[in-house]
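Forum: Protein Structure Q&A
Topic: Joint prediction for protein chains with partners

I've read a bunch of threads here and the consensus seems to be that you should model interacting components together rather than docking separate models afterwards. I'd like to see that in practice. Below is the full input, 558 residues plus whatever partners are listed. Could one of the regulars post the assembled result?
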Amino acid sequence: MRDVAFGQYFPGSSLVHRLDPRAKILMFIAYIVIIFCTFNYAALGITTAFTALFLILSGISPKFYFKSLKVIIFIVIFTSLLNLFYGSGAPIWQWWIFRITPNGIHRAVFVTVRIICLILASSCLTFTTSPTELTDAIERLMKPLKAVRFPVHEIAMMMSLALRFVPTLLEETDKIMQAQKARGADMESGNLFKRVKALIPILIPLFVSAFRRAYDVATAMECRCYRGGAGRTRMKQIHLAARDVIAFVTLALVIGGVIVCNSLMSGVL
Amino acid sequence: MNCVLELKNLGFVYGKGTPFEKRAVDNVSLTIKRGEFIGVIGHTGSGKSTLMQMLNGLMRPGEGQVLLDGRDIWEQPKKIREVRFKVGMVFQYPEYQLFEETVYRDIAFGAKNKGLEGDALDKAVRDAADFTGLKPALLDKSPFDLSGGEKRRAAIAGVIAMNPEVLVLDEPTAGLDPMGREVLLSQITRYHKECHNTVLLVSHSMEDIARVADRIIVMNKGKLAMFEPTKEVFRRGDELSRYGLKVPQITNIMQALRRRGFDVPEGVLTVDEAFDALLPLLQKEGKLW
Ligand SMILES: Nc1ncnc2c1ncn2[C@@H]1O[C@H](COP(=O)(O)OP(=O)(O)OP(=O)(O)O)[C@@H](O)[C@H]1O
Ligand SMILES: [Mg+2]
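Posted by a regular:
Agreed with the consensus. Here's the joint model:
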């Protein structure tokens, strides 16, 4: 349960690690938009190259990127098959109800590359950015929403607390599962109803301890006089640096490239 | 067959192939005889818990084998559940595993999974509760209403109720008051004496281990450092201190007395033994009475 690579943070000091987390989030959002606005192979190639550049600069072993892809391999195969057989136009191959058209092939390729790029990019983001940095950045980015009385600080605090407890709860689940297995709990066989019932010995202790921890944290925060966001300062200030500007410029070039490709060449979809 | 458990070149690595790789158990080989009371000691992080969890198949060894009654427990991975009934495991802080509506039902959980029913189940539960010193009145309460020590007893009873051939206890007395430790420990010894089952006890208290164990496994950095009879282990105090461990205080005192020329036996491990050794000495010198 604990060797899920997706969403894990690997401490490091690569260029991508040192980018401002706000910049990384904004770039990630822009990236999602671009990847779905590529309509021919040249545009797709540019964004793929951009993804590859970031993966290389992140300095994280390709092994972990592959591992994160393993989780979604079935979704990728399934959606690309669907797209392959549902293309429009004249078929180049046909058997029973299956027909493959050039359009279908293009669509399958695009959907596969897009999903893979998305997963790789989001892995790159979480591999290189600690949960604290992420929530910090989100809080800063949403600051303007305070004007409409949106509780930005509270939401961010809730997020960071939740993130903080994900590994703890995973570890706890592991421990409880082991303990119940030691008492002969059978979680691997039986029908659906039996399996759901087998979860009770795990869920109840888990909830009990989650509530206990929640109370503990609340008490600890109160003991340290936590009283919401007003007037709080930060220990770690984040500043935009030259490397962030360079990253933005690269992104702008990619966006420009995609737009040029899309308008100059005809789309294949 | 006289040996219950045999470990052959057992090894385990956490997080293999990640930056967090950590070798927790390294090439451990040993055999444990039926009915023995084994103490397991070692400094924090020396791999005791990891080793114990491999004994009943909760963790699959990366290297080596665990033989139970002469058969590799992973021979048929589908049947690993049966091994768990034979090797009962009580975890560090086992009170977190309680979940049923009543203490009675919680203790019955493991035995029921094993297939016990009716009167046999009832007897197993009540015997287990008795062994761990849980009062019958507590059996109908919710496990969440018990005190910490009582929860601990209930959790241990849940494992004992399965009547395992080998009982593994991972620091069962951690976090209990001195009296509670004492009582729990003597209940475990009573269980061992009356049921003739094999018991493995992990503990950081050298005094406890010295009192109850026949032989001691000493772990150091994942390796088996010593596996000798209790007296032998505690005679090698210098070696123990290299592994970050100590001999019981009373052993130290008696050794100091020996060095000063008093005629006391070597290898005194418990206060009771020391008492028996010192009393005649004092009487002989006429300083008492
Ligand atoms: N789930 C885990 N993931 C990664 N490493 C672990 C895990 N559990 C234990 N370890 C590491 O393996 C080593 C052995 O741990 P283990 O729990 O077996 O020690 P121990 O002897 O029981 O210690 P203690 O006396 O503190 O209970 C430790 O260095 C620990 O950091
Ligand atoms: Mg331990």
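The mean pLDDT of chain B is 90.
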